[in-house]
């Protein structure tokens, strides 16, 4: 029996987007539910579906059609796509999660900006928090920010928010490392503070401050319980 390409595609897209019904998928594609039935009968993926899914979600056309290869087109850090979720009645937005990791410890040398996956958020919530187009998600390793932030947490960082507010948590680049720390600005120095008191503060004097770059403010934390 010949495999039904449409059924496979529908399952693939629903799993990737969190869409829970074919009616919602049809709405996302801008077609009637009967359009899905018609495509199923022909057992052929319409070209306009591939274009719509690419534009709306950023899915790679080859992955849409075959399920093989990379799921998303190559993204730059901070880009994201919109889609409307009829089930929630809300506009949603994808935020890229990059391969680079934030270190809650001695420093992360994993600074790869390649997108490994996307996380989905309510677009209105993101807009209230900052600049969604400049947001990026990164995973944490190390325990210097425990108990507030633990190893394995995923943090959402707004790269547009680089102004320092005392006590706020930021992603900070120091030379070739990426740290997640609370930052205090003292006269002629920056102090990078850990919540875990086993870690001493890091003092960056005036001549070292130029080597530091504020990547962005941490605005959200996701924790997976193990």
From TrEMBL:
GO terms for biological process: negative regulation of DNA-templated transcription. Residues 100-219 form the Peptidase S24/S26A/S26B/S26C domain. Pfam families: Peptidase_S24, Phage_CI_repr. Keywords: DNA-binding, Transcription, Transcription regulation. It comes from the Bacteria. The keyword DNA-binding applies. Residues 9-72 form the Bacteriophage CI repressor N-terminal domain. GO terms for molecular function: DNA binding. This is Phage repressor protein C, contains Cro/C1-type HTH and peptisase s24 domains. It comes from Desulfocicer vacuolatum DSM 3385.
């Amino acid at each position: 029996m010949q495999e039904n390409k449409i059924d496979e595609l529908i399952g693939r897209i629903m799993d990737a987007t969190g869409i829970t019904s074919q009616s919602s998928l049809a709405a996302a594609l801008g077609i009637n539910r009967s359009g899905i039935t018609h495509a199923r009968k022909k057992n052929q993926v319409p070209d306009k579906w591939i274009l719509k899914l690419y534009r709306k979600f950023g899915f790679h056309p080859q992955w849409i059609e075959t399920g093989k290869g990379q799921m998303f087109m190559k993204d730059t850090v901070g880009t994201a796509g919109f889609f409307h979720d009829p089930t929630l009645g809300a506009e949603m937005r994808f935020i890229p999660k990059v391969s680079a990791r934030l270190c809650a410890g001695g420093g992360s040398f994993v600074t790869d900006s390649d997108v490994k996956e996307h996380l989905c958020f309510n677009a209105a919530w993101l807009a209230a928090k900052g600049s969604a187009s400049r947001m990026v998600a990164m995973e944490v390793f190390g325990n210097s920010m425990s108990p507030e932030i633990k190893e394995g947490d995923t943090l959402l960082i707004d790269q547009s928010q680089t102004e320092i507010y005392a006590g706020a948590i930021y992603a900070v680049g120091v030379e070739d490392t990426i740290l997640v720390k609370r930052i205090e600005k003292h006269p002629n120095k920056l102090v990078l503070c850990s919540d875990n008191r086993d870690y001493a503060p890091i003092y960056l004097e005036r001549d070292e401050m130029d080597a530091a770059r504020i990547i962005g403010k941490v605005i959200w934390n996701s924790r997976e319980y193990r």
